[in-house]
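Q: A reviewer asked whether we had any structural model of the full assembly, not just the individual parts. We don't, so I'm hoping you can provide one. Inputs are below.
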Amino acid sequence: MEFRERMQSLREEFQRERLDEQLRFRRESYELSKQYLIQQTVAFNESRQKQIEFNDFIEKYWPLTTQVYTLLKEQEDILGKSSIVPLRVLIAKTDVSSYVKTSPISSYDEFCENVADGLRNLPNTVIESRPWKNTCQSMMCEAIDINYIMQGIPTLLVFPYQVGDTFGIEMAAWSFLRGFHSMTQNKILKMDGMKATEHIPDVVSAVKAVVGMARDAYMLYEYHSPVIFNKLVDEKTLELPAVKAMLDKHYKDLSQQIHNPKFAKLCTSNEMHEIENSLRDTKLLTV
Amino acid sequence: MNMFGVDDVLLATLAVQVGSAAFNCIRGNKHSKELAAKQQAYEEKVAREGIQNAREEFAALCSLQREIEGELQRDRIEMIKSNHANAILEKAYSVALDKWPLLVPPYVVKNECLLNLEQSRNEVLPLNCIMTTSMDSNFNKSIFPNMEESIAEFCYNYWNVASDRGIRFYQRAWKDNITDIGAECRNLHALMKDVPTLVLSPQVRHGKLTFRFFWWGVSINPQDVHIDDNSIFDPELSNPVYEGMKYSDDDIRIILSELVPRIEAFISYFADLYYWHYLKMTPILPTLLKSNDIVQSSNLGSLIATYINGMLDEKVLSSVLLSLYGEKFMELIKFLPQESQREMCIKILRRRCQGVCNIENMGFDDIIKLDLFSNKDIPFWMSIKDIWKDKINDIDTLIDILQNKNALSSNSIDKDKKYNSGYAIIVSKEQNKKTQKPKYNL
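A: Here is a predicted structure for the entire assembly that you could use as a starting point for your response.
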């Protein structure tokens, strides 16, 4: 009898425990599901916000003819690509590059084609025809907008512009990196007292020079390739003193920077040898 | 008779035996009935208790379920309310984006991830500097574009975003030539709260050109927002500038030559402040001032001293001072005149020994004799040798002693500060690493 009573009380104790546990578990499940739901809602709202932003961006800020979708897909392909990724060159439609003098056809098209014509023998670059939809207003802002989508695709943006009596070229460039530090923006060339629209061929030469040197910097840093534009540059371009000074300075900087231990460590001795030779064999000032 | 007698005994014995068996039988029967009854009662009790328990259990579960259902319902209602608030805000947000005044939208300024929601980037944002046109169309036509162009160039050259510290100067960034910054500034702030920003808005009034300015996000304190201050920066141009003034070429040249460097210095000051607060980077404006001849040399020294003293004022935390130990400290105070350099060193030394003994009135000679320093302080003493050239022997002696001191027998301050100063060394190393050229140094 006593034994059975003991058993019974054991059973009862277990039952009480089970009940408590059941209640606790149900309460916990409820709390958990509540938390999950909140998390889900937060993520959902965040996603909604991003969608609103993206709609806004695509509709109002995207300045290029190439669709954002196209670029996002291309970006995926680049990740798996084993061959050299060429530097994409986009020349902005500005008052200088789209200046219409006599010809009724878009001179922006002419301008891009002329730059491309002069650089047919420069490998690893793709110069796009008429990439901009409308005239570019703020070089600064549009570069950031384009970088937002295209970061990770090696790109060079060239903005020929006129402020008062000064002609200048602003550039923005980036490679495979992402984030703020990935993009370099600069006013690379300034020619005081020059009305660009009266000297379009010179402007074309200057733009070609910028593309050439950017290409060399890109290929040098990303693929340890020898530079070539310092030999390819035509005499007419070198007749423009400001452009020549810009090129001289650029290749001088490159010759110094290749000896930076960080870079030198990444190159094989053969590569370094070729790079050094290519920098010495030049139409520009040698260091 | 005999027979009878025998039989009698036998019978009697038998009878007794039978009787006792019968009695036993009756007694046993009675006992087992009692037992069965008890058992039944017990089982009944158990069953009743079981049922009662089950009832209670069910009731408890039901009551919990009821409670949870109630809470679920409240949650659902809450959710609908919050979704409603969210939908309203969402609409307001899309309209705010729709009316955004700049040519680059705020989420792009922050460079937020595009395809996935995770914010993996924890880079320090550059300082954003936005300049509006003025209400004066002549100023906007003759002065503004050249001014903007020069400042943009300055920022690219000295504060390039691709380097370790940058200013993003938004040249020609306003849609439709917005001129009324007054209220627009709040819109900028609402959508770029977490972006360090300085907004400048030129105005030509009462024969003077001044700049209203607004800023936020420059210090670590999120409350540090200055859009209601009515702050005005006066570049103190030597010639008057009138509303609707017709600017001659000479006017333009003179105004720009005075205005541009001062605005550049003004913007640099904020950038220095920002990078000082976030990364403890020493300011570069003093160097820029010296090399660019921005202000007249007579008051240059005192201006810079005020500037540095402001950075190292009493509000600066001890941990910050410790992170200045060594090279960084020298970088910062080399801009001060010799006497101020000494004062600053004493100030830092006093801070170093704070709470350990009363050193408020002690001079250099007394402090150096204190047995308070450890080998962690060596970089600091090394760095101030140049400032106390006349005490160089005393300092060398102290450094020798510190070098020989067993690192294990460090005193009490040292235990407290160990982590901090170790960290300081890591920080300064990291920062040296960061000082690198942008990849495309075109």
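A: Points you may want to mention in the reply: Residues 407-442 of chain B have pLDDT under 50 and may be disordered. DSSP finds 15 helices and six strands in chain B.
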